Amino acid sequence: MGKVRTEIDDQIAKIIQAQHVFFVATAPLASGGNINLSPKGLDTFRIVGPKTVAYLDVIGSGVETIAHLKENGRIILMFCAFQGPPKIVRIHGQGRAVEPYSPEFTGLISQFPQYDATRAIIMVQVTRVADSCGFGVPLMEYRGEREQHFSWVQRKGPDGLRTYKAEKNRSSIDGLPGLAE
Question: H-type helices in 77-143, by residue range?
Fold first, then answer.
């Protein structure tokens, strides 16, 4: 049976840290707005403390998570064990985007790998941690990270990335404000 916690304990931390992928979901306040669900990989997730987690947000085709967090802060992260014992962990919380121009960014970025495509650090104050069985999650073998993102970033170069962010990451698909810079 699943258990609900108010913070991340050692058992939950071990499950989370063993995963190569996690999922992030956010939604705007408007009932007709688009809910966002995104997979995340690479070495981007950190447990900062029992009630705080963070992940490195890299440039993508949209900016829904950042826009939704700026509007209402609601976020949920889900980790599924695709290897080993079945388990699902959901972390509910209030999130915010720490963008590179923020003084706080400099202190946080040292906890993550350096990626040219970094656009923000998502900080989450944990309000609820729930685990469940995961019996329906398939067993899958991890084979490694994909290289396409890094190749794309290299081809774009610094100027191309700035242009891409300006064109694709200033607002969400619902018109909510995205990246400030």
Answer: 103-109
